[in-house]
Here is the input.
Amino acid sequence: MMLWDTINNNLATIWLLLIGFFLLYYALTDGADLGIGILTLFTRDPEEREAMMQSIHTTWHGNQTWLVIMAGMLFGAFPLFYSIVLSALYIPFTLMLFGFIFRGVAFEFHANAKRKSIWIYSFGMGSLIATLAQGFALGGLLGGIEVEYEKFAGRSWDWANWHAAVVAAGVFCGFLMLGAGFLIAKTTGRLQERSYKAAEVSGLLTLLVSGAVYVQISILHEEMAAKWVVWPPSLLYLFLVLALGAFAMFFISLRRKKQLAPMVWNWLVIIFSFTGLSIGLYPNMIPSVISHSLTVQEAAAGPLTLRFMLGVTAVLLPVILVYTTYSYWIFRGKTTGESYGNSD
Here is the structure.
């Protein structure tokens, strides 16, 4: 009975944690796919580009599905958040969809094309557009959205500022880091060696830009700034230390030429960094530097809706996780680099 009362009293927070989980799962999986797509733009060797695309061709469709699931959950659990953010950021979201279209069409056409280079280039450009669009959307949200009377009250280009550009640079470097780590685990030979170098460079850039994002958000939002000076120290410090420790272990694993460890430490870097940033902004779900910030409770749907959705999710989420885990297990192992389509 006490457990049920606790759940009922914290439905909005539970749903915030669930959506955060889906967002992280998407970032870790499709982020690696997008990073690999961008890396193809910097690779001239046709065989290496084939191996890069081959490494993700069995899983990239499923990885995008997490974004669709998360959008549906946001619509049901936080309809006010969904409507305001979609109104404020519809331009980067539209660009992201175009990027996904380019990437999807290029991937499918590449498999059977005689001239593969144009489709590989399209795949890379689609990945780049989707990545930058996601970065600017996240930056526009973290930078603050003007809300009045529970509606978006700003301009359609408010997201296009240097604050969002810094966040977009962080997403770009972070996805490159994920893509390089995935290639280390999935490839061999010269491509793997190049991936070690790409992971080290992108990791250093991600560390620098992530620090800039933390400083920037702390300056913009008083709620986060206050959590740096409270006593006893907030959990913000704990996750900052964990993120820095994961960064250190990531670089150590690269120097030791580990194959799976860089990807795992990369995941932990993103999980700890995202969690720390979320703790810094909580309970605000839509931060604002001009108007009233919208809290988690204010953005949430009614208790009946949240309870119903929680019951459905409790049944479906384990099924989805088992299926995706099994899919990754079936297609484990190294990439051969052979074409997966008919090039006759």
Notes: The longest strand covers residues 284-286.
